[in-house]
Amino acid sequence: MSRGRAPVDWRLVWAVMARDLTAVRRSKSVLLPMILVPFFLLVLVPVGVGLAARSTQSVDIGRILHGLPHQLTAPVTAHPPREQLLVLVLGFLLAPLFLIVPLMVSAVLAADTFAGEKERRTMETLLHLPIRDRDLFVAKLLSAFLPALAISWLGFGAYALSANAVAWPVMHRVFLPTRLWAVVILWVAPAVAAFGLGVMVRVSVRAETAQAANQLGGAVVLPLIFLAMGQATGILLVELPVALAVGAVLWAAALWLCGRGAARFRRDQLAARL
Known about the structure:
By secondary structure, the protein is mainly α.
């Protein structure tokens, strides 16, 4: 179809998305990791770690925080001593999970966007749909991005409920989420998901199967996961403007990747690889 500058035909985009989401619901190999891994990371892990931290009152938090700048340790040391370990562990040290989940879920779904079509032998049907190349690419992006966002936000809600429930006997109040938590969840995490998506969709176009796409994309996505693990705690300890700026940089990179992918996407080139 033509690749003109006409507005996106959202009716066709939503139709393709509905088709893709139906395929995801029917694929246990895609659906189960999207549900079980976030449940393990955002519910079971914080409950287990929180219970261990709650029962351990002899840890010297000062030694853990020694050498760090005061502005970074203040959010922890501002709490009474018996609350500090729980705040440190549940509020900050498990923060990498906030960014791993959207990155992982978007990568799993993105790997299935085009490679999954080839594997299910439905690519020819997709290529003959009466939709512009750009709109097809947008539909594939949103088919991975929106579920990843929904699962991430539901998972973060479950994390907050679990963490507050575990800490309640000590804290006697709801201490999560904080303002910076909200920025990470609502601003930074979606940007991370979009960034990983921009990489994985382009990998999926070239791969023959979803498994191959995951293997190829792992070389790019795994470093992003380690980077997310290294930076998430720091983001939650910095000032609000810094966290907003980090999210803005990630969004700019994600939009550039997705825009480049849309500009280069050609259905005839995809058909040539069948």
